[in-house]
Amino acid sequence: MLEDFIQELPKAELHLHLEGTLEPEMLFELAARNKVALPYESIADVHDAYRFSSLQEFLDVYYRGASVLRTEQDFFDLTYAYLTRAAAQNIRHTEMFFDPQTHTERGVPFEIFFVGMREACQRARDEFGISTHLIMCFLRHLSAEQADQTLTDALPFAQDIIAVGLDSSEIGHPPEKFGEVFERAISLGFKTVAHAGEEAPADYIWGAINHLRVSRIDHGVSCSEDDDLLAHLVQTQLPLTMCPLSNLKLKVVDDLSNHNIASLYKLGLCVTVNSDDPAYFGGYLNENYAAISEALALKARDLAALAINSFEASFLKDEEKARYRNEITALLV
Ligand code: HPA
Ligand code: ZN
User: Ligand 1, closest atom to CA 198?
Assistant: First the structure.
């Protein structure tokens, strides 16, 4: 019953890595097309490999998967497949991460992946009416100089990139490492977001707030450790883009019934539900909503509030946010 309501809810997705939407079938198809060797014999082998006990174990598999992406057509196909699924789940707007360095480091130039992704966004907007933004993430395990070079590489495409973000291995790579690059990005007109508090402590969330001047925190699970931070997040309504099934798969939480998304929502933080890397974590956006409603006893009105948050936390214009808020509120009467 709630499944139908979740399907019907207009939603925005704000924490989604395009490279994390590469389904095993497409992985094999692109490996064959581009003659890339894979360490898997079958789809069952792939599923076996998708058992992770930490972020790093996942990232090793995820970067290996991304190595099959070579041509503009590959990036178009990947992006278009995700947007087709997103539209079918009644996602009306999505702000998608991509990792330039995962591709440029392998010799795939910026214009190849970016043009493929951008064309797919245009096609999906025309066909399904879904709106999109693209967010370029820096890989935090690489140096600040490499991030700075990536920002320079992106300049010809800057008008189609709404924000810069920060992802990859968190512990040992605090936000401060990228303070200067983010300042440069802000001065060039980009908004900023950052993964923080996924595996690392609450200090990393403060670091993203104070040194990267973020509009949102991606994950933010560890904020519960710090009462001053909680008070700050309630007061500023700085959103958290949370990813319940991801946190379960990467053992950030041992069980969804222990996930803090519901308690943070009840405390009055602006939390949102997202799928992160759905091809790897066993569910797209509606499956994440369904999983938390079941594990944390959230009702239709709570799910509706989370969906309203997803638009409020987006980079859409105020008129569009208001239109979605009204549409969702009308579902409850
Ligand atoms: N965390 C950090 N880096 C990532 C993730 C994540 O959840 N997904 C893809 N890159
Ligand atoms: Zn993420």
Answer: 1
